[in-house]
Amino acid sequence: MNLDPSYVYVMTNKPRGTLYIGVTADLVRRASEHKQLIGRAFTARYNLDKLVWFEKFEQIELAIQREANLKRWYRQWKIQLIEQTNPQWRDLFEDICPTSVEA
């Protein structure tokens, strides 16, 4: 069992736009890669460069389980989840990496 923190996150291109749900052990690095459109053809194709939601887990297994569950949710449920904590659909990248202006 891995006890390093892990994250489930949502990237988008605009408020209520295309959503991408992912899991990572390094949220700053992974969000930066999305901003540079590195790593996944899907995120590059739809320009998914805004981090709009994330959740931290102490075990990767729990993060993977949460990611799988979220991917089965209806789109409207995902939108409501984001809007509970980020109603303006702000890019949260600066919150997790405040010294960075842009990746």
Average residue-wise pLDDT: 91
Measured as a percent range, the helix fraction is 40-55%
Shape: globular
Strand content: 15-25%
Under CATH at level 1, the class stands as: Alpha Beta
For the sheet with most strands, the description reads: 3 strands, antiparallel
Q: What is the radius of gyration?
A: 13 Å
- Count up the helices: 5
Structural class by SSE content: alpha+beta
Write out the strand line-up for the largest beta sheet, numbering strands in chain order.
2-1-3
Q: Tally the structural domains.
A: 1
What does this molecule look like?
This protein has about 100 residues and is an alpha+beta fold. It has a single domain (about 5-95), classed as GIY-YIG endonuclease (3-Layer(aba) Sandwich). Helices cover about 40% and strands about 20% of the residues. It has five helices and three strands. It has helices at about 25-35, 40-45, 60-70, 75-85, 95, and strands at about 5-10, 20-25, 50-55. The protein is globular. The mean pLDDT is about 90.
